[in-house]
Request: fold
Amino acid sequence: MKTLKELFAQLSQSQNQTLAVANAQDKEVLSALKQAQELIGISAFLLGKEEKIRQMMAEISMREDNVTVLDYPDPEECALAAVRLVRNGTASILMKGMIDSGIFLKAVIHPDFGLRTESGIIATVAVMETERGFLFITDPGFTPLPSLHQKELLVEQTVQVAKKLGIERPKVALISGAEKVNQKMSSSVEADQLKQMYRQKDIGCVVDGPLSLDIAVSQEAALHKNYCGEIRGDADILIMPSLEAGNVLYKSMVHFAHIPTGGIVTGAAAPIVFTSRSDDAATKLNTIAFACALTKEICL
Amino acid sequence: MKTLKELFAQLSQSQNQTLAVANAQDKEVLSALKQAQELIGISAFLLGKEEKIRQMMAEISMREDNVTVLDYPDPEECALAAVRLVRNGTASILMKGMIDSGIFLKAVIHPDFGLRTESGIIATVAVMETERGFLFITDPGFTPLPSLHQKELLVEQTVQVAKKLGIERPKVALISGAEKVNQKMSSSVEADQLKQMYRQKDIGCVVDGPLSLDIAVSQEAALHKNYCGEIRGDADILIMPSLEAGNVLYKSMVHFAHIPTGGIVTGAAAPIVFTSRSDDAATKLNTIAFACALTKEICL
Reply:
């Protein structure tokens, strides 16, 4: 599978997924869910201020079948309740509604009732629909400066995401400011260490770095620079050296290149839909679709 | 002036600038110079392997008027000689030909014969021709992680560049991973410090930050996020938190959004044309044009 269109088609043929939405009283979130109902078929628990949720649903003519509204006026209790529905398997995807990110994430990583796993790192993966297929960028949202070990976790989690989305042997580019190891740029040193590590450890992917962005995504640039590594413009996954670099890349692809996108949060026990108010409607819908494709039940 | 077309038109009416090119025996470099001869009118000293240079000039039918070829077969001597031509005022712009970047830069910063200034920081500025006009990104090429003081120098140098290119009161966005100060992200802390600094010190520009890229370049995103600062999608200059973030932004704008670009090196006593082999012909030509606009003699 290489396009959003194909992903939507496949999901519409698959079993319905169930989302638990914390503080669902947000028209844009509900509109995205309504579209998801229509295009791929979903079920949802909408937690939050019940009266407001019902009123908004009516305003946008959102169907009530497969939807359960639960009254949780307090945001903290609401987030914990939504997390619990996912933890006990009643829902398969957690979604953030109109709630402070801090309160939402606190529930996600709650030591007793949360969705943290023993080995995962909570991370954002932006998925871009480029001409070559899906391109996965991590982590533009959570860890400011991932350590070597955290980058290893990012590689492994994102490889799993890419495989779920149909890429058999993902090509992982460890991005830095240049393609040569430079002691003054720690990302280049760590990229080299990671590359060596994955020469010994086969997780069903190709890992190359340090790479500059042009070599990772442009065959022409790789050719011009006579780059002879394993990735020459055909990277599937970009492991970014910092949150800032990932954030800037993701946003420039959206705002300058107008590339369709969605983003999911990985590293928890279930996929999390964590969209931002500034994401447009299509991005919110794409994100729900990516999350559906990543649930344990789905095998596309 | 807001477009490359306007810039070329104005330069074609202005006094010819003279370039000193170190190791000019490179067909792509000579082709760019030939185009610059035709479009804006330039003079050039071509230093390097004289025979090769003359042969290549003949192959691409490059005109010999206003061109002086000087035989410097040794790259180090060649770079120093080119730098000296600029230092003594014979040429107004230095250009890198087919020469190792390290050797070239060593000549640029030579303590006795180089082009270093007392207060400047050698930095790359990528100039992008967006729908809104020129957007200046610094530093995608030299300093891995600029300090607070180095960022101050970057602000001041790039403001001068933007003014030379027709932006009267440039809007300077200090880019970070988000628009809030986050103690775990030093770029956001330093952005706030810089913003405060420029409230006391007027250098004829607007400085705002920390800003995420979307708020800096997209009015829509700034509106969605209810951002009320001085820059709302209309930044002219982006001061990037790291080389990696700048490099990734510049390259994604080129490779995904296909935005016309050129880049110049600032902070030396004269503009420097420092193109990479992977830059296409148009980028090399644009870079020469930007350098011409930045010479002391030119007043567009």
